[in-house]
Amino acid sequence: MSSLKELNLDYCRMRKLPEFGECMENLSVLSLWGAAIEELPTTIGCLVGLKELRLQFCTRMTCLPESIQNLKSLTILNLAFCSNVVQSLHCLSGLTSLDTLGLTGCFVRPQESRCFNLGNLVSLTDLDLSRNKFEKLPVNINELPGLRRLNLDYCPTLKLLPKLPSSITELYAHGCKSLDPLPSNVCRGIAPSAIHDSDGLLHKHT
């Protein structure tokens, strides 16, 4: 299927995907929203032209294969509510073209975010960490030079914000009950240039 550009298997009941071939370089979108798969085949690394990978609500999936690092063209990855893959998120470190990352509802225990390294995702501009149960964000979030949008909505146990990149123009924190709601605390670590950005307005929703 060398000419295939988009493959949609949303809510498919099969637990194992077929292997992907090296000829499938034209596949740019793979959608597995709510599928019953337990893992991705290692041959997903053959999809070198893949730009968007939708895995939200794949709750049976237990880990990510190391070969996912071969997806150098990937710009959008959504892992919302895939809580079982948290321990293998280090596999994302090679995705240097990743622009948008969705991790809604992935961290179900406060200590899990400590092992998550964001530093290598240098192209990231949109990060969704909403509906997670952690007390602190990954400290190296400030190493993301192009991050513009950060969603922390409904993280009820979040107590402290680390230093954030000065590039941020949108910060969402609805329902963060443990976070001090004072504006001075919300803006801690955000450079004044981000708050009074001439190109846009920093949205503080607390």
TrEMBL record:
It comes from the Eukaryota. Coiled coil: none annotated. SUPFAM superfamilies: L domain-like. SMART domains: LRR_TYP (SM00369). It holds the Pfam family LRR_1. The keyword Repeat applies. Residues 3-101 form the Disease resistance R13L4/SHOC-2-like LRR domain. The keyword Zinc does not apply. Keywords: Leucine-rich repeat, Repeat. InterPro entries: Leu-rich_rpt (IPR001611), Leu-rich_rpt_typical-subtyp (IPR003591), LRR_dom_sf (IPR032675), LRR_R13L4/SHOC2-like (IPR055414). PROSITE patterns: LRR. PANTHER family: C-JID DOMAIN-CONTAINING PROTEIN (PTHR16083:SF25), LEUCINE RICH REPEAT CONTAINING PROTEIN (PTHR16083). This is Disease resistance R13L4/SHOC-2-like LRR domain-containing protein. It comes from Arachis hypogaea. The lineage of its organism: Eukaryota, Viridiplantae, Streptophyta, Embryophyta, Tracheophyta.
